[in-house]
Amino acid sequence: MEKRIITISREFGSGGRFIGEEVAKKLGIAYYDKNIINEIAEKSGLSPEYVQKNAELSPKKGLFAYAFAGRDITGKSLEDIVYEAQRKVILELADKESCVIIGRNADYILKDRADVLNVFIHGDMPEKIQRIMGLYNVEEKEAVKMMADTDKRRMTNYNFYTDQKWGKASNYTLCLNSSQLGYDRCEAIIMECAK
Fold first, then answer.
1. InterPro entries annotated for this entry (predicted)?
2. Do 93 and 99 contact (CB within 8 A), yes or no?
3. Res. 36: pLDDT tops 80
């Protein structure tokens, strides 16, 4: 396998997390998602609960919340400290072993490496809504709200900490529509491209 690190960025409800987990299982490589939260917490000195809430998503208030967040004497906000710890953990994991890393700006953090396949998974609105309704046992209106809120917060975080736009095709090696292709074909395409 020439490219040994696969990063998966995804729209909420597109199944990107599930696809990434299946790819890791089928390739027999490590899978990192929420299981890196404790390492990030340890490196940042913050609680795992705080890291889980803030490592990938922006504050609900958006970009201005970053700009005007409380800063320590070095000028860093808590979000900056979490991001820096997350960055260190992702770089260490990429050096350590072949793996799939979900979200957390891993595509940007690892962009200078030749052994990385950066994937963005998106989907069609009706399928994403149905998936969210089923997974979270919510009505359609709540599913739409959850999707809009989560994607907005992911985008704000990504756009703030990278010099790129979240979801823009040119930032990724591969962009896949899970609604059109289905999960199995997405997995097969990713594994073929990772050879």
1. P-loop_NTPase
2. yes
3. yes
